[in-house]
Structure formats: C-alpha cells, structure tokens
Records
---
Amino acid sequence: MKAKRNVTIKLKSRFLLIIASLFIVLLAAEFSGILHSITLTHAETTFNVVFDFDAGSPPPSLYQNTPFDYLTSNAVAAHFSSPSDIIAPAFSIQNMVPLGYNMSMFSGQWLYDNQITRDYLDVEFNAYLYSVDLTFAVVEPHGGPGTIPSYINLTAYMDSIGNQIGWTWARGETASEQNTQGILSFTSIDPFNLIRIWIPSNQPPFNPTDFYVDNIIVNATFPPDTSPPVTTINLTGTLGNQGWYKSDVTISLSATDDLSGVNRTEYSYDNITWTAYSTSFTITAEGTKTIYYRSTDFAGNVEQIKTGTVKIDKTVPTGSIVINGGAAVTNSSSVTLTLTSNDAISGVFEVRYSNDGVWDTEQWEPPSTTRAWNLTPGNGTRSVYYQIKDNASLVSVTYQDSIVVETTSIAGDVNRDGRVDIYDAILLSNAFNSNLGDPNWNANADLNSDGTVDIFDAIILSVNFGKSSP
C-alpha cells in the first residue's frame, strides 16, 4: 500500500512538472513574442544619426563656444551646454592637434573642454534615444607600461538631470602619446533624451580634467507626435490704408513643430493645386488674392489649412471737377462744384479742395458729387483744385477748373475783393503820386481815372472806407 502511494505521488509530481514545463515554454514563447514585437517596433521607428561637428544646420563654426544648437538632416536636434557656461563657456569647437597628442580617432572638427576645471558636458535631444556611441579622448600624460588610463563617464536621463535611466563608463586605450582615446557606448531598453559626459575626480596618478568628444552616434526615434505644425505668414510691401498695399507684396511662410519637426510647407492660390514652399515669393497682380497654406510634420500630422489675404492697388484714382456747370463767368464768389471720383480696385476713400493748389493745410473729407465752395475774393480768373485718395492711400493727380469772377465794385476797392479796407489804402499809398507809365503805377488805385494817383483818389477811398460791394 505504501509502495502504491509512492508511485502515485511520483506520477503526480511528474505530471505537475510536465504542466509547469509547458507553462514555462508557453510563457517564454509569449514573452519572446512580446519582446520580438517590441524589437520590431523599435527597429521600424528608430534610425541612426551622427553629430560629427563638421556638418549640420547650422554647421558648427570653429571656436564656437557652448551653449549651441545642432540640427541633423534627419531633423534630430541637440543642445550642447555645460553648467559651467554660467561662468564662462566650458567647451568649444576645435580642429588643432596639440603637439605630442594622440588624435588618430578624430577628424575634421571636435568638441573640447577648454577650461582648466573639470566640467560636465550636457547634450539634450529632441528625440528619444535608445543607444549612444561617441569617440572620446582623455587628456593625460602616458604613464608607461602597466599604467591604467583614466576613465570617462556617461549618464542617461529622461527630460531632466536627476531622472536617471542608466550610466556607463570607459577607459581609453593606452598609447605613447599624451592622451588616451576610446569609444564610449551606452544602450538602454528605456528611452532617454539627455546625456551627461564627465571625467570623475580622484583618478591617480594623473587626475585629468580635460577631454575631447567627436562623432556622437545616436539611435533615436521621435516621441509620439499627434499635434500638427504651426505655420505663420508674413507680408512685406508698402502698406497703405484699410489693409491695402501700394506695391508688390512678398510672401514668406515659417513653420514650427515641437516634436518630430516640420517635414514640408505648402501653399496654393486655389486650394486645389499645392506648391512646396522653399523660399519667399512675390504677388504683383492688383486686386485681392487669397493664399492658402499648411505644413506637415515628420509624424504625418497635417495642419489645418490657413488663409491669408493679399490686397494690392498700385493705380492712382481718377476724377474731374467743374465749376458752375462749366460756365465761363460768374458774378459771385460762391459757386457750386460738380465732381467725379473713381477707383476700380480699392475704391475712393477721401477727397480735398484748394483755392491755390498748395496742399499744406487742406483737410481730407468724404467724397461727394457736388459741393458748395467759396472762391478767392475779388474779380478776375479764379481756380479750384481737387485731389482724390483711394483706400490704398494713393493720391490722384491734381484736377482743376477756372472761372472768371465779375462782381459790382465799389469806389476805393483797389484789390477788387468786394470791400474797402486797410489793404486797399496800402495799395493806394504804394502808388501815390504815380502817373501812367511809372514803375509804381496801379490803375486800380486811380479811382477818378485822371491818370494820376493823388489826394483826390485818397479822398474817394476814405469816403467809402469800411463799405462792401452789394
């Protein structure tokens, strides 16, 4: 009975072991599938980019100091900085190899810790990273056979220093020159977007403080991006009134995207045919034109179509003026003006009038087809001048019309302004004692028409002084 019980227990144990083994196999297969799925997704969405300090947008210039921004052709951007930059720029772009230094792994330009202090190099990316490799050189003298080179550290963070994802370190290869070179690599299953590179202290016998960095290679993917880019339009030209331009208008578009970056910007005149935007373009045709525009980011998000209105008027308005219906003569200085004003593009805005054609104090006013007007006082030919301004603030040429004024005069009205006053007395005094043919002769001052301006003319003026024509 005891032997049978032992057999039963052994069979149950084997059965449980088989079940457990199957469960482990299935679990392993499931985990493998999940891991494979993650790996495939990672492989499909990530790509490698290189920051070599020789090309990019903008290309880093020689001796350029941190902080600075660096954009690759894949739209992965990096911001290079150091906490020590607050005091003085800690790192700069170099291409000089100091005498006796080993730089065989470096080419073109590289980044160098040019301060005597031990500085951190922070590099912040606009993408998620899964791995980073970089070439480094630690500045230290060769210590001879058996001397262990100093090491350099890299710590990875997400979003900010303190939110650590992981870290690594590496030593350079022992060489006969004055520094050791190597490759520093870090890989993580968790994404990161900020790295810090530095040389730890207390590394006898040399305790180096300076290092070089070149060829930073990152395996990156952009964060999930569901927001479209934002595009703005800018119009450049000679602006008039009411949003109208008096010249050709240059259109420029600019777009921003906080995550994956702007892939392309387009514009259209009809919302049907779209043109890729690369540089500013100019509108020359007069009238009103609508510009449609939009941008698409690298994640495929398309911005909602926006519109901008361009209004151009380069043609001055036209018009006409007629005094008293075209009459040649009037016996009054009060007249009626008949007016026209035309502008086929932006429309007429205001008009103004003048008796002398000098546009200094004349006020603009709304247009009308007729207007009561007072001519310059006195007899003779009198003119009225007229200008038109459209909504683009373009001003017409000066239009004018003239009429002869013949009013009943009063004895003593030397200047023919319809009244006898001090101005007439001055004119008479200027011509006093003159005869016909003299330089100061004034026929209007010879009030009794005897060919001489004398006391008798002065008496006539004084009798009527202060009176006006009927």
---
Amino acid sequence: MQQAAFIMLNSREAAFGEADRTLVVESRRAALAALQRVPASTPLEDYALIGDCETAALVSRAGSIDWLCWPRFDSGACFPALLGTPDNGRWVIEASEPGARVSRRYRPNTLILETRVETSGGVVTVIDFMPPRGRNSDIVRLVQGDRGSVAMRTELILRFDYGRTIPWVSRLPDGTFRAIAGPDMVTLHTPVPLRGKDLTPSGEFEVAAGTTVPFVLTRGPSHLAPPEAIDPDTSLSRTETFWTEWAARSQSRGEWSEAVTITDHAEGVDLCAHRRPGRSAHDLAARAVWRIQKLGLSLLLAAGCDVNVAGADERRILRGGAVLARLAASSRGGRTGAAANHVWTGRRAALDRI
C-alpha cells in the first residue's frame, strides 16, 4: 500500500510542491523507524487472514490470533501480539505436545481457515472463521477430532487499546467468561472448563476422533447485556455459503485461480466494510490512505515508545498522511473524506495536549 501511495505521488507531483513530498517521505521514515523498535516476532508470511467484512484477524501457523482490531478496522487492537509479545494480547489454541506437525489451507473458495495438527496421539483440525456480521462480531474456532485423541490447550489474553488496557474478567452464572474494558465487552462461550489466572482464561482439553470442541468469542458494547451465543455449526454453514457465493462471481480461471480467489476475498473484506450508501469515491480513496497511516500509528503505540519520541514520530506520520489523502482525493476529482480528517485532527489535538 505504501508503494502504491508513492507511485500515485509521483504521477501527480505537478499538483503539489516539494514541501508536500518531503512530508510524505518523513512520514514513511517515521513509520519504518517505529517498526524497527518493535521486537521480532512471528514472520508476517506465517499469518493467515480471516474476516467478517468489517474487521479482520491474523492467525499464525502456531494457532495464535496475534492481531485483531475490534469491532472495526479502525478500532484499537485487542490482540496486538503481532507487534510485541504474547503478553500484549493474543488467543492461542494449540497442541499440548511440543513439536506437533502443522499444515493448513483455506476451505475452497472461502476465508475459512483449516489448520491440521498432528501429534503422536492423533490428528485434529482447527477451523477458524468470522461469520458475516449480525448484531455483534464473532470469532468461531472449532477443534475437530480426525484420528486418535489429541491433548490441546488454549489461552485467551485480551489487551485492549493496543495492549495498554487490561480488562476486568469475570465468570457469568452460565460459565461464560466476560471481559470488560471501557466501552468494550467480550464474551467467550465454550464447553471447555477454563480457569482464570492473572485475568487470563486458560484451559486444557482432549479431542477424540469424531468429536468437535467449539469456542465462540463475541464482542459487544459493555453498557448492554452480554450478547447471546451463536450456534457454531450453523455459523460455519452460513459463512461457507457467503464466501462461495462471493467466489462464484470471480472470472479467474486456470492454474492460479484459487489463489486469485483468496486474494479477492481478502480485498472483499475491506471493500465490504467501506462500500456503503452515502460514501463517495473520494471518501474511499481517503480512507484507503488513512489505513496506511493507521498502521504507522499502531506500530508506535504497540512499540510502547516514550511518549515524547512517539509524539514526534506520530506528528510526521499524520502530516504526511494528510498530504497522501489530498493526493488520493484529487486523483478521484474529489476532496478529502470527513472520516479521515476527523482522525487526523483528533490525533493532532491529543498530541498538542501532551
């Protein structure tokens, strides 16, 4: 995305002066400098994407959800381990036995991720997906026994606002775990007995051949009653239908058609979120560039930088982002979208108060 933005900048350089180009370059350097301060973690190529058309999560080969902004793409991350350590927030489901053999794939023509885990005792498949959104946003994880019996473990570390806010975790009368932090509430429904330690639910369980252990994580507003649990099997069927109908519109044919379809799905997660009534082309263009800058801001926040250092970097990112938004808007013959302007001006105001 950054490369596309700079190609666009070069193609329209006559419309903007040297000062604007300098701001964009400075913003990119600031974001890269922030990235270099973040500890090394799982390689990006080891992540798969699942989404519900309004946000998306990244799932590692090890079975850990290390990135999720909830409930929207532009919300703060509640699983930001991608940019730090597991303690910063993640949700892992993995084999208890070390050295398990792992392979994975997307279910054909969908964004339903299937991870095959093989141990000395047997084989299970972990099915990860986000159903098309209803009243709330959900993550469903199904551990399906294929052969023998496999010992598994799970650990849910929720850390809102890019890892800076630890929620209050409690157990409801029906056994549901509930985590609340400010306006956010997350519930976890599962038959697995979980124990709470350091405000972190965790547990071990066995999965035998022919059985399935479900986990449903749901986000809702904290001022309302806890959201009702969705049926995981029905949600799986509905999600598969949604994506296969989407894929049926693809014109791709040939050897790489499945890879192209998956790419279309990933782009569709983003396009569905922003192609809504009342949003014009220049709003979409401005928001696309805004997400480039959002990544830079996420890096700064998750890195836990000194506030003064982060503030200086963030100002450069924001200033360069404003220029990129003007470029995107002018290429569409419009003006900068109100949503992007709101974010930039809001962040500037917050920095000025530091």
---
Amino acid sequence: MESWRYYEQGKVAASESGVGAFEVHTAAQQAFVLVDIDRSAEAVNLLASARTRAINSSSTLLRSWLAAAHGEALAASQQNKESLQAFDDASNLLSKGAIVSDGPYVVLDSVIWIVGAVMPWQGLVNQLRSVYLTCVGQP
C-alpha cells in the first residue's frame, strides 16, 4: 500500500529530525490509514501511544489535535464513552490558555491552524462531538 510506505518514510524522517512533535504527528497521520482500511482498533492504539508521547514533546495545539484524532478512531471502533472523553480532552486542552505552535501545523478544511486560531478549532472539536452524539443516537 503506497500510503503506508509514505508514512513509514515520514516516520523515519521525523525520527531523524529529533523533534518529538514531528514523530507523533506522523504516527497520528498514519493512524488514519488504519481507520480507512477498517483496522480502527490498531489506530486507537497508535493514537493512544502518540498522545502519551506528545505530553512532553508537543504543543497544546498538537495535543488537542491528537485528542480529537483519537476521538475519531475511538468512534470508528464503536468505543462511545472513550470517544466522547477524547473530544472533551481536545476541547479542554484548548481552554488551558496560550496556544503555541512550535511543531507541525495541523491542516483542517484547507486552513492552517496556528497561533490565534483557537476559537475556530475549538468550535470544530465541539461540532465533531455533536455529530458523533447524533450518529450514536444520543442528545
């Protein structure tokens, strides 16, 4: 699979950079390949590991994005309660104050989220959570 090889090359490059944020970002992106090929349980594990590694190596913005990505993978694997908690974690991380983007940027809907773009991203996290609740039949 070409996309898998692409992310494997990315992980090597990220590792060579010595910047932990690049490593967890690349691993998280690779997790979406797993979701796309119906291996969401593996994606959940990969994202959980990335979130743990990101605690000391990544900005609050990237950790928020990782939490939201983890929420998506958890939803894909039918882990409702855990998914909602991950979305809440993403929102709570953004509420902690200053957001510094000192690593990889996060691209959503062709918009680069950097310092100063907290409110639109927080709104997106809340929308993802609401869509998920609607899909599982909760108010």
---
Amino acid sequence: MDHYSLQFRDRYVGKPMKLIFELPFRRLVLLNVFFAGCGNVIDPELKTAQHAPLSAATTATSLPADSQLLRGVWEIVKCDRNGEVFPQEVGGRISFDGDKAVSHSADGTKIQYLVELNSSVRTKTIDWQWKQDNQTQTLRGLYAIDGRTLHTCSPSTFEADRPSEIRTVAGDGRWVFQLEKISDFVQP
C-alpha cells in the first residue's frame, strides 16, 4: 500500500461520514477503491472479481474474525432452492462455536459439522465437513455477514463445485439461506 493510501486510511477510516463527504473530489476515487475491498458484496455484476484476494489494508483492520462474528445461534428466516422459496427449512437453527457447527433442522434432524472459513477472498467461502461411516464429505459454499444477518449459498450435494455467487436460479440445485442471529451464546 502506498504512502497516500496509508495516510488516507489512518485519517478517515472509522471517522464520522461528515469527514468523508468533505474530502476533495480527487480523493473520492481513492475512497471508492479503498472501500471496494472492505467485505463482501453480493452483486451479480461483480462475478469476475468476487474471488480476488482482499488488500492488505482490509485484512489488517481490527474487525473481529468471522469465526467470532458467527459464534452463537442463528435461525433460518428464509430459504430458497432452485430459484424458488423453500419454506420447509424456515425455523431451523445453526449453532457456531469456533470450527464447529451444529444444525438443528425444522423437522428435528441434528447434524454436526466441522466448518472452515476463508474470509481473505472477496466472496467469503465456507466448507461444511461432515463425517459419515468414517468418510468425510465436504459441502463447499459461500457466506456473507451483515451485522446479525448471515447469508449462505451451497450446492445441492457434497463434493460438488462451489457456487460463484450467493444466488439460486431454477435448475441449479443451490440452497440459499438467510439466517438471523438469535443468541451470542452457544447452546449445549
């Protein structure tokens, strides 16, 4: 990162928006570039840049690690599959604690996963690993956190290719979940 970028970051990041709007016009381009690398953007128009690594300035910020943001209990408030609403999953819950997750579906099914997060890419990735009969299967998905809202997208089967965006359309078999955090504490 060049000298001007570091100077800009130290002067304006975390400051009230009034300061940002008082910036000279020539600095707005830098502002736009700087914020473009901060976090996940769910936008079908940005497909080509979604998996590009984040800048060093973004990864060096003091934001909590995503595993800390995920820690707690999340309730499924919306589910889509194959481009259509899939209400059977609404009401299910997922508890995250470090690299472990426990899914409690609306019908009472409980599944334990090992979870691997990668937040160093523009579209964050999540791998759900499940053991059955001494074999580990991996569901490769995407996720985005916005405050106390979590969006996930995964293929319909284990070992399938990771989706390129958080979206589902007719016939793709993808699952897209919207979850709301209901507790910061993990239930036993």
